[in-house]
Design goal:
By secondary structure, the protein is of the alpha/beta class. It has 20 helices and 18 strands. β13, α10 and β14 form a beta-alpha-beta unit. The chain binds adenosine-5'-diphosphate-glucose. Adenosine-5'-diphosphate-glucose binds next to α1, β13, β14 and α13.
C-alpha cells in the first residue's frame, strides 16, 4: 500500500480512477465526426480536479453528454489524445435518462435537498429509479476500468450510491474514497426525504468520505447515527455499518493559488484589467462571478443593490456592479424561472437608476477564460460572493489568489463553506438579511487602503496554504491510510458529541447557520477547519 510519504512526491501518486457525473472536457467535433478541439467544462468540480489528473497518472470516468437514440446500445466512449490531457471514459445516457437521472433526481431533488432549499425538492419515484440505474452503470464501468492498485475516487452527490455499488463488484481490500462537494443536510432535513436510508448506505460503501466543513461532516455522522443506527465514533470520525468501517474527514478544497497569482502578474492580464476599468464609466467596481443558480443568491444580491442605490443616491454614477453568471441546467424548470425573475429584476434596477452612459448593474452570461477571469478579479475593487448556500465556493479563493497587489476586498456570505476558512478576514454578511449585505458592501467600498491590504494579506496567506495540492494529498492519505483524526477535528466532533449528550445536538446544528449564531462559535469552527488542514502542509 502506498505510504503517506510517497504522496509527498509529485511523481509517485498512485494511479487515480476518478469518477464524476460532470465530464471534464466538452469535445467539439467537426462534421466528419473527428475531434476538432475540447474545452474544459465550467464549474467548481472540474476547476479543482482537472489539475489533479493532469499531474497524476489516471483515468476519469464521467457522463458522455452526446445524446444517442433510444434503441442504441449503451455506449461507452474513450476520449484520449486530441488535446485531452488524460484518458476520459464516457458513460452514455439516453435522453430519457438525462431527464430523469440528471435533470430530475440530481438537479431537482438532491441539489436543493443538500442545500436545504426544500421548496425546490421534487422527490419523484421515476427519477429515483433512474438514479439507481445510472449509479449502477457508473459502478460497472469503474469496475471494468479498475486495476488492483488504483485509488478509486468518487465525486459528488450525483454518484452517492456508487461507493456501496463498488463494494459489490471489487475486492474488499480495494480502497474507495468519496468526496461530497456540496453541503450535507442535517438529520431533520434528510429524514423527510423518502430515500434517505439508501443514500446514506450508498455512501457508507466508501473507506473515506470527505466534506468541506466540520458542519457538513457532523451532519453526516448525525444522520448515520439517527437514521441508520450506525455505530459512530464521533471523536475519531469513524462509522461502522455492518462489517465495514468508514472514516469521515473535513477536507476543505482549495484552488491552484500559484497559477492564479502567476496569471495575475502577466503584463497582458494586467493590461486587460486596466482596459476593463477604462471602459466602465464608474469609480468603483464590485464583481460577482457565479454559475447561474438559485443557490448563489444572485437575485437576493440584486435586491440588496437596489436598496443600496435607493438609500444612498451618492453611490449612483459612482459604483457599478458587474455580474458574470453563466447559465447552467437550462432544462430544469426552477432554473428557467429563476433566470427570468433575475433578468426582470436586473432590468428594473437599471431602468430605475441608470442614467447617461452609467448603468448600475452590468449582467453578462458568457463564460470567461482563465486569463479574462483573472483580469476581472484584478479590475474589481470588491468581490461580492454571497450564496444562500454553497459547499465551499472557489470564486472567493480565486479572487484572493489573484490579488497579488494585496488590494481589493472580499464580501463573503456566512452560508458559503469558504466562510469557515476566509470568513474572519473577509467582510462576512448574511444574505438572508438584506441590511447585512448592504452594510457589508458599503463597508468594503469605504475601507481604508491600509485595512484592505492587511485583510488581503491574511486572506492570501490562507488561500496559499489551502491549495488543491494540500487537499489532494490529504484526501489520498485518508483513502489509503486513514489514521486517527487530528486534534482539531477531534475537538470539533467531540464538541458536537457533548452537545448531543446535553440533549441539544440538533439545536446546535440548526444554530450554526443562523445569523444570530454567536461569533465565538463561528470563529471556533473556522479555527478548527483552518488548522485541520494545516496539519499536512504543502511542502
Ligand atoms: P460550483 O457550484 O460550480 O461548484 P464554485 O465553487 O463557485 O461553484 O466554482 C465555480 C467555478 O466555475 C470557479 O472555478 C469559477 O471560476 C468558475 N466560473 C464560474 N462562473 C464563471 C464564468 N462566468 N466564467 C468562467 N468561469 C466561471 C461545486 C460546489 C461548490 C464547491 C465546488 C468545489 O457547488 O460549493 O466549491 O463544487 O468543491
Amino acid at each position: 500500500m502506498t505510504s503517506p510519504d510517497v504522496l509527498q512526491s509529485e511523481t509517485e501518486y498512485p494511479r487515480l480512477l476518478l469518477a464524476s457525473n460532470r465530464e471534464p472536457f466538452r469535445v467539439i467535433r467537426g462534421t466528419d465526426g473527428d475531434v476538432r478541439h475540447c474545452i474544459r467544462s465550467m464549474g467548481g468540480l472540474t476547476s479543482a480536479l482537472c489539475p489533479v489528473l493532469e499531474r497524476c497518472e489516471g483515468v476519469w470516468v464521467s457522463w458522455n453528454p452526446e445524446p444517442f437514440a433510444p434503441d442504441d446500445e449503451i455506449q461507452v466512449r474513450e476520449q484520449d489524445g486530441d488535446g485531452i490531457p488524460f484518458p476520459v471514459i464516457q458513460v452514455g445516457l439516453r435522453n430519457s435518462e438525462v431527464r430523469s437521472y440528471y435533470n430530475g433526481f440530481c438537479n431537482r431533488a438532491l441539489w436543493p435537498l443538500c442545500h436545504t432549499i426544500l421548496r425546490c425538492v421534487t422527490p419523484r419515484l421515476d427519477y429515483w429509479q433512474d438514479f439507481r440505474l445510472i449509479n449502477e452503470r457508473f459502478a460497472d464501468e469503474i469496475a471494468t476500468q479498475s486495476r488492483r492498485s488504483d485509488v478509486i475516487w468518487i465525486h459528488d452527490y450525483h454518484l452517492m450510491l456508487v461507493p456501496a455499488a463498488m463494494r459489490r463488484r471489487i475486492d474488499p481490500k480495494h480502497r474507495v474514497g468519496y468526496f461530497h462537494h456540496v453541503p450535507f443536510p442535517n438529520a431533520r432535513v434528510l429524514k423527510a426525504f423518502p430515500w434517505h436510508r439508501q443514500l446514506i448506505k450508498g455512501l457508507l460503501g466508501a473507506d473515506s468520505i470527505g466534506f468541506h466543513t466540520p458542519e457538513y461532516a457532523s451532519n453526516f455522522i448525525e444522520c448515520c447515527q439517527e437514521l441508520l443506527s450506525c455505530d459512530t465514533r464521533t471523536e475519531q470520525g469513524t462509522i461502522v455499518h455492518g462489517k465495514h468501517k468508514t472514516v469521515v474527514r473535513v477536507r476543505p478544497i482549495g484552488v491552484d493559488a500559484k497559477a492564479f497569482a502567476s496569471l495575475a502578474d502577466e503584463p497582458e492580464v494586467r493590461k486587460h484589467a486596466i482596459e476593463i476599468r477604462r471602459t466602465l464609466p464608474c469609480e468603483r467596481l464590485v464583481l460577482s462571478v457565479d454559475r447561474l443558480d438559485y443557490t448563489k443568491g444572485i437575485l437576493e444580491r440584486v435586491e440588496a443593490i437596489r436598496s443600496l442605490f435607493s438609500r444612498l443616491p451618492q453611490c449612483r454614477g459612482v459604483v457599478t456592479f458587474m455580474q458574470v453568471a453563466v447559465p447552467t441546467r437550462p432544462d430544469v424548470p426552477e432554473y428557467q424561472q429563476y433566470r427570468l425573475k433575475l433578468e426582470e429584476a436586473i432590468n428594473a434596477l437599471n431602468g430605475e437608476f441608470g442614467h447617461g452612459d452609467w448603468k448600475p448593474f452590468i449582467y453578462r452570461t458568457e463564460p470567461l477564460n482563465r486569463k479574462e477571469l483573472v483580469a476581472h478579479y484584478l479590475a474589481a475593487d470588491v468581490a461580492c460572493v454571497t450564496p444562500i448556500a454553497d459547499g465551499m465556493n472557489l470564486v472567493a479563493s480565486e479572487y484572493c489568489a489573484s490579488r497579488t497587489d494585496e488590494d481589493g476586498v472580499l464580501v463573503l456570505s456566512n452560508q458559503a463553506g469558504a466562510s469557515a476558512i476566509l470568513g474572519e478576514f473577509a467582510i462576512s454578511v448574511d444574505i438572508r438579511h438584506q441590511e447585512s449585505v448592504v452594510t457589508g458592501i458599503l463597508q468594503a467600498l469605504t475601507m481604508s487602503e491600509a485595512e484592505q491590504s492587511s485583510r488581503m494579506q491574511k486572506l492570501r496567506s490562507l488561500v496559499m496554504k489551502n491549495t488543491t495540492d494540500v487537499w489532494l494529498r490529504n484526501c489520498l492519505h485518508d483513502i489509503l491510510e486513514p489514521d486517527p483524526v487530528e486534534g482539531e477535528q477531534v475537538a470539533v466532533f467531540a464538541q458536537r458529541e457533548q452537545s448531543r449528550r446535553n440533549g441539544n445536538g440538533r439545536a446546535h446544528a440548526g444554530k450554526s447557520r443562523h445569523p444570530a449564531h454567536s461569533h465565538g462559535a463561528a470563529a471556533k469552527r473556522r479555527h478548527h477547519a483552518g488548522n485541520g488542514n494545516a496539519q499536512r502542509p504543502a511542502h
